[in-house]
Design a protein that fits this description.
Mean pLDDT: 91
Strand content: 15-25%
Largest sheet: 7 strands, antiparallel
Number of strands: 16
Number of helices: 26
């Protein structure tokens, strides 16, 4: 084999837990943009193993390279991709790509090329002879060597995403830090060496190991600090990583999500070393996003000590029972919740949730930094926000403390795992995250100089899916109990894009074909008119408000984006509204394409990809995501 730069072969093996073939378009886009070269599909890795140049690594001796390459293939239309191109920094590539379980690079014995592939990595101890040999170079890099016709080296590289996404399972299964430690080591060992271990398909967890969860077809979504809080309609993190790779976003750039929700893009950007901005109109979501990106910097011992102290204080209050005998419990008014939300609320549970909140706010924490203290208090409030409805309506005080403590510790485990990964596998070069509670319809006035000066290098966002999800109502009890809203109806009606409670005054605009109505593309006008004609004024009003708000949002996003940079929008493809004459179908995806490229936004439409959601149900779920790529002219 010659050592010309054009002679290197790259083989990318897809993850086995990809939802379905609809995601393959993103995986191909990711790898082609990352390497800047078109790729060729690998239908079955047996095909490339049976011919030059990989056939020389097929062996029946102790080191069987083919067993590594063929284990756990994606069971769909293809198993991976191959590219022939010049040497690339594979360490950097391993920190970025998300759709691939592993990739292989074939080269010779030239140390200069190997150092170009693995910059800064020691290659001492590697040798090449007639026997196929395996060398561990890094926790995520191995090398196979053999010399039959000429010296060859095949690097096996595990993307970091493959190594840290099992933290989703680990945080769910662990009940103490020792469990995290053990499963962390087992998960790394599994992907490195356990190529012959059979997968246990049993649904029972008692005798299952972390390796069984890793080998299942369930795709982890809440790894690292994504675990801290999830909301309906959240991003699939793997998709966001791939989209950023396809946009060529890199260190030194700043990426924006003006509908940041629970902060998926912000976490993904931060751990990739990319500065990012998250914006949401709902203060709870802004708080969640800030904490997900801030807590990865916290020292786990400090956090553990403060959690233990807080839970001990709450336990003392529970055991005293004083709050249950307080005269105020029978006279609870709307100081915590408005009367409209008091129906079905257990008063003893409401009082105990108030005690937990007081313990958090009045506790003494080991820090002199007021910002860190506020963040820590908000971190400890998140389990209340997550379980608030259940706490207030279903659980007695003793059960509330148990549920609260379990979730708080699992949030801690996600941070503890992150530090274990950094200590033993790879240190992340972190990006800076800035989070604001603000309105995308007035984006240019966000108190951030990069937005005000139109210096945003990319936007990836997912607006509300029409009127499919009531984000305010879903978290209304948490908004009041955490002091984040004084009037949830005003928050919904005035600030929430996609509100289901828009004013019916909008109907006159539709019927009279007002200026705002005519500013919408025809694909938006048609279903609005049909809804009014079929006596669905409530839905017509809500969708009209949604389309007009999204028109304004596109204009603002386009204004803050640098010329030539991309905006990627992820939205449900379709939504239906029932009527006496049949369903009225709203083509949300196509409508957003038209609104985005219509003046004044005037974005250039590039392409779109449909992603079928594996867990979508027939009732109430958006079955298909529509991913739209725009570029600012």
């Amino acid at each position: 084999m010659t050592t010309n730069q054009e002679d290197l072969h790259y083989y990318f093996k897809l993850k086995h837990n990809i939802q379905n073939d609809s995601e393959l378009a993103l995986s191909k886009l990711e790898i082609e943009k990352s390497l800047g070269q078109p790729c060729t599909e690998i239908i079955n890795f047996v095909d490339v193993l049976s011919r030059e140049p990989l056939i020389e690594f097929v062996s029946d001796a102790n080191t069987r390279t083919q067993d590594f390459i063929t284990r756990l293939p994606y069971p769909g239309a293809i198993q991976g991709y191959q590219i022939r191109t010049s040497p690339r920094d594979c360490i950097s590539l391993a920190t970025q790509i998300t759709y691939f379980r592993e990739f292989y690079v074939l080269t010779g014995s030239d140390r200069s090329i190997l150092h170009e592939l693995l910059p800064g990595v020691s290659l001492e101890g590697m040798q090449i002879d007639k026997e196929t040999r395996l060398f561990d170079i890094l926790p995520y890099v191995q090398a196979f060597t053999v010399c039959k016709k000429e010296p060859r080296t095949l690097l096996r590289i595990l993307p970091l995403h493959t190594l840290y996404e099992p933290s989703d399972f680990i945080c769910r299964l662990a009940t103490k830090t020792e469990h995290v430690d053990r499963m962390f080591q087992e998960s790394i060992h599994h992907v490195q060496t356990e190529i012959y271990r059979p997968y246990s398909a049993s649904s029972a967890r008692w005798f299952k190991r972390i390796a069984d969860f890793m080998d299942s077809r369930e795709a982890p979504q809440l790894y690292l600090t994504h675990y801290i809080f999830g909301i309906h309609g959240k991003f699939f993190p793997r998709m966001i990583g791939a989209i950023m790779n396809s946009m060529n976003i890199s260190k030194g750039d700043c990426i924006l999500d003006p509908f940041c929700g629970s902060g998926t893009l912000n976490v993904e950007s931060t751990i990739r070393g990319i500065d990012n901005i998250g914006i949401d109109t709902q203060p709870l979501f802004a708080m969640i996003t800030r904490l997900k990106t801030e807590t990865i910097h916290w020292k786990d011992e400090w956090l553990k000590k403060n959690i233990e102290q807080l839970l001990q204080n709450i336990q003392v209050n529970l055991e005293s029972g004083k709050f249950l005998h307080d005269d105020k419990i029978g006279k609870l008014d709307n100081s915590l919740l408005p009367k409209s939300l008091m129906r079905g609320i257990r008063k003893d549970s409401l009082a105990f949730v108030g005690i937990i909140k007081s313990c958090i706010e009045e506790g003494r924490y080991e820090t002199d930094d007021k910002t860190a203290e506020t963040d820590l208090q908000n971190f400890c409030k998140l389990p209340l926000a997550y379980w608030m409805r259940s706490f207030l309506k279903k659980q007695e005080p003793k059960k509330i403390l148990q549920t609260y403590g379990e979730y708080l510790w699992k949030m801690f485990y996600s941070i503890y795992y992150f530090h274990q990964f950094e200590n033993e596998i790879c240190k992340f070069k972190m990006g800076k995250a800035d989070v604001y509670t603000h309105d995308v319809r007035n984006l240019i006035e966000t108190p951030d100089s990069r937005i005000q000066q139109s210096e945003i290098d990319g936007i990836v966002t997912s607006p509300p899916y029409g009127t499919a999800i009531d984000y305010v109502r879903d978290h209304v009890w948490a908004l009041y109990m955490l002091g984040l809203s004084e009037n949830h109806r005003r928050l919904d009606e005035e600030h929430q894009i996609g509100t289901q409670h828009a004013s019916r005054l909008n109907i006159a605009e539709i019927e009279e074909k007002g200026e705002d109505f005519l500013s919408l593309p025809e694909i938006a006008q048609r279903p609005l008119t049909a809804m009014v004609q079929n006596h669905r004024q409530d839905k017509a009003s809500a969708f009209y408000r949604y389309f007009v708000d999204m028109r304004d949002a596109f204009e603002q996003m386009s204004e803050v984006l640098r010329p030539g940079k991309q905006l990627v929008l992820i939205v449900g493809k379709q939504q239906s509204v029932g009527s006496e004459k049949g369903d009225i179908v709203i083509e949300l995806g196509k409508t957003m394409e038209e609104i985005g490229r219509k003046k004044p936004s005037d974005l250039e439409y590039l392409s779109s990809v449909d992603i079928a959601l594996q867990k979508a149900s027939q009732r109430g779920a958006i079955p298909t995501e529509h991913v739209i790529f725009f570029k600012k002219k």
